Task: inverse folding
């Protein structure tokens, strides 16, 4: 995530290199506000540098990590922590309440299920329903998304039948980057215009042929519309990983997703250059005909 970038002691953290001028600016900021907390100083620095996310929110957590790295390197001195941060990941995976529901079989054709309703449930009363369904029935369980994200539940007559999740895209996926054709700087500027399908599950009592590919076809526009509404910026491309040891990706192919290639199986923090996890097939779904121009040019 971070490392010494050069012989002059510069620090690189998540793509930003701290210059001597940056370090001097932060030192003056700390001196100017001696009674402020680390969080408050981080917000002031974000505001001073216009360090914001695409939706206008301050990059507070990234900035705090950046400052902490400088502190650990002895380049600045942060004030003592005033309190332990409220980090649910540090306390481990949260326990989710088991959901009791009608599990009688749902059969028939896709047409017979209509009308299907796809609801974006993040920040709604149905968000806990999504969390517990995924924890109970997805083979990977529930994992709190990182960055920007959406959660969807598909209903038929108010009965949940499927769940989707989308989150911020991973920064480095070789086959995806080659498919798009962008360079490192273009990717850095436009990675927020891609969404990553992290979860998709049809509940086990639902036995409807072709439902998976039907929903994958419909979720694309829904996710794009909901992303724009929630985060005030568009997305132009969807991607997902399919575990090749479990699935063939047939439903994605049937829904016109494009096979892009395979992961290396090494993970983002690998230092051994040897596979240490299952190989994933990477699938993509362009949301506009000019997605390459949009992503490579950074136009929104």
Result:
């Amino acid at each position: 995530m971070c490392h010494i970038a050069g012989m002059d002691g510069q620090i690189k953290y998540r793509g930003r290199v701290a210059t001597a001028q940056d370090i001097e600016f932060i030192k003056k900021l700390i001196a100017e506000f001696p009674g402020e907390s680390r969080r408050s100083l981080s917000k002031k620095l974000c505001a001073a540098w216009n360090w914001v996310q695409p939706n206008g929110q301050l990059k507070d957590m990234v900035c705090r990590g950046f400052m902490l790295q400088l502190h650990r390197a002895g380049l600045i001195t942060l004030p003592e922590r005033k309190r332990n941060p409220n980090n649910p990941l540090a306390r481990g995976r949260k326990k989710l309440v088991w959901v009791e529901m009608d599990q009688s079989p749902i059969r028939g054709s896709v047409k017979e299920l209509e009308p299907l309703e796809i609801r974006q449930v993040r920040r709604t009363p149905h968000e806990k329903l999504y969390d517990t369904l995924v924890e109970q029935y997805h083979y990977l369980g529930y994992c709190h998304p990182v960055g920007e994200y959406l959660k969807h539940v598909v209903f038929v007559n108010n009965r949940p039948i499927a769940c989707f999740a989308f989150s911020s895209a991973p920064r480095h996926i070789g086959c995806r980057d080659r498919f798009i054709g962008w360079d490192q700087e273009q990717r850095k500027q436009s990675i927020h215009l891609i969404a990553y399908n992290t979860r998709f599950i049809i509940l086990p009592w639902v036995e409807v042929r072709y439902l998976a590919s039907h929903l994958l076809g419909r979720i694309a526009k829904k996710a794009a519309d909901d992303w724009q509404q929630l985060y005030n910026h568009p997305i132009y491309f969807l991607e997902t990983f399919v575990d090749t040891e479990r699935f063939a990706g047939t439903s994605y192919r049937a829904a016109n997703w494009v096979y892009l290639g395979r992961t290396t199986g090494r993970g983002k923090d690998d230092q051994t250059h040897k596979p240490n996890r299952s190989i994933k097939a990477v699938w993509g779904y362009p949301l506009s005909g000019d997605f390459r121009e949009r992503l490579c040019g950074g136009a929104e």
